[in-house]
Specification:
Elements lengths: L1 H4 L8 H8 L3 E6 L2 E7 L5 H14 L7 H7 L18 H4 L11
Antiparallel strand pairs: 1-2
Length: 105
């Protein structure tokens, strides 16, 4: 995103950034009535695609499913990988990923 945007200071508010990305609804107006349509897709196509892909990936919280939980039963704690750095903190909210091991920080 940073390479596509270059200088974030040129967007004084969020509406300017969404306009740059093409993530604003199209408008149809006649007299006093106004209708909003689909996104305009007139901005930066690469940045818009990255933002939409990120939103789709973020819609479900990370969690350990039943199959993975079953595979973890009976494993030695030393065989589990050490948790990596959390980038945004969203994965640590639910406490589901990385797997919570007793006695491990």
């Amino acid at each position: 995103m940073a390479s596509e945007v270059c200088d974030w200071r040129r967007f004084p508010h969020a509406a300017a950034f969404t306009g740059f990305c093409g993530l604003v609804p199209s408008g149809y107006s006649s007299g006093t009535s106004t209708r909003r349509g689909h996104i305009t897709k007139t901005g930066n196509a690469h940045l818009r695609a990255q933002l939409i892909e990120s939103a789709w990936a973020y819609q479900h919280r990370p969690a350990v499913g039943l199959q993975l939980r079953e595979r973890h039963k009976g494993l030695d704690l030393q065989s589990w990988p050490a948790p990596g750095p959390r980038s945004c903190g969203c994965a640590g909210v639910s406490g589901a990923w990385p797997p919570v091991a007793p006695g491990r920080p």
